[in-house]
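Protocol step 6 of 9: fold each sequence in the batch and record its structure tokens directly after the sequence line. For illustration, a two-sequence batch is reproduced in full.

Sequence one:
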Amino acid sequence: MEIRQNSRDFLRHVLLAVGSLMMFFPFLWTVLSSLKDISQIFVVPPQWIPDPFVWSNYPASLEAMPFVQAYMNSFYITVIIVTATLISASMAAYAFAKIRFPGSNVLFILFLATMMVPKQVTMIPLYLVMDRIGWLDTHWSLIVPGALFNAFAVFLLRQFVMGIPRDLEEAAVMDGAGYIRIYWSVILPLVRPALAAIGIFTFLGAWNSFLDPLIYLNTPEKFTVPLLLNNFKGLYTADWSLMMAGTTISVVPVLIVYMIAQKQIIEGITLTGIKG
């Protein structure tokens, strides 16, 4: 019996290792291609190790496009979206999980139903709304929808809040605390792991977002990093070496955030009952 279990564990680890290598392959190809000249990238058979290493691709990519401005744009947009999402989603999750009001369950189901609507369906109506209120070619068109309409974050946090014992709320009420005080002093400290997981997911989504900036932004000085990388691709040709170098640079903040908070991601997802 033990031998059979060990065989299953070994096979499971082999499959996970193969899957990890398959997912790591595109990133490895990107990093290696960022150190090649254009003649080495598409050579057949593939040349994995650059010969020579073209380190000049990195400063050249930073000089070819206004990357510093794009980084600043992506950074402050992402920080605002993450902060606003954590506040709004946690407040909504607390209301749906602990506050009983007429139609709360129906409203929550309708709120979750928005997750089933494809983004392509809402692109044109949302574009018309942004045009009507004058937010086209501004960062508000990226910040407000991304920060205030995250049904997945509300759902994830609600599952966590529902697991908090009601005795803690009752004790706070006996001490004279209202809804706001309970939310701030009782709920928020206890949902910290889930907030960390939601913060990481939101950060990754906002930092890597390409479609929304492509739709709403026209001025190069307002571009985010993913949108600016697209400028390396011309009508008839593309500077793949500089694009790969710029892409590698753009991945660095994501890797740093993940390395710092990977424990919180796993803990938050596990404690909310959502398992892959």
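Sequence two, same batch, same settings:
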Amino acid sequence: MKHIPRKRFGQNFLTDDVVLHNIISTIGPQADDVMVEIGPGLAAMTALLLEDLRHLHVVELDRDLVVRLQKRFDPARLQVHSADALQFDFTSIPVPAGKRLRVVGNLPYNISSPLLFHLAEIAPLVQDQHFMLQKEVVERMVAEPGSKTYGRLSVMLQWRYHMELMFVVPPDAFDPPPRVDSAIVRMIPLAQPLQCDQLQLGQLVTKAFSQRRKVIRNCVAGLLSEQELIDHGVDPQARPEAVPVGQFVALANYLTQRQA
């Protein structure tokens, strides 16, 4: 029976064989990798990954698709976790000593940002991540300071990862076609990210980018004074999108120390 894509799960199934093989080539799965795929859907990518991997974990929310996956694949090779990826404990996947987790998936656009933040919490345990996302989201993730697309998502992820937009995927590669272009992003956790309290940084960045047209002095008024910005090398007259990740981290660390 044909599976009808469900809007509430943000289901758009990748069907283009050329794109699928390009994604697999970009990921470069190795037989002994500890890999988890988020949202395997109709298993187009799952089947190709299992051509190279001895074992694969998948996290799938749609129970109908869970049943399909369990019937189609040998459970000794594919372990299906029936769960919401936003709530799933990725540390529950056993990883042998000397190995780190590899995470892949065609992420539902409606949960992409919160899911990326959820995964950032386990960044030290991850080797790399390869995701299909809305192209606009990927552009925000990899944006440089000074760019119109540089913002909260850019800062919070660039603090933890090196990221690269690998290639763009057109709507007609999916069934049903989404209304936007997609893109593949590679995310590699930084070996030594700047030390910072994630909650404090998140609160600062959220406040800073809440009024993008204003200068940063006005955006963080009540949190940081003009002199405190100057003391940390930040021009009070600069717009938030001109402030590099390192300066946001320094300001967040200062706030943490000030509150101690």
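Proceed to step 7 once all outputs are recorded. Observation for sequence two: The radius of gyration is 20 Å.
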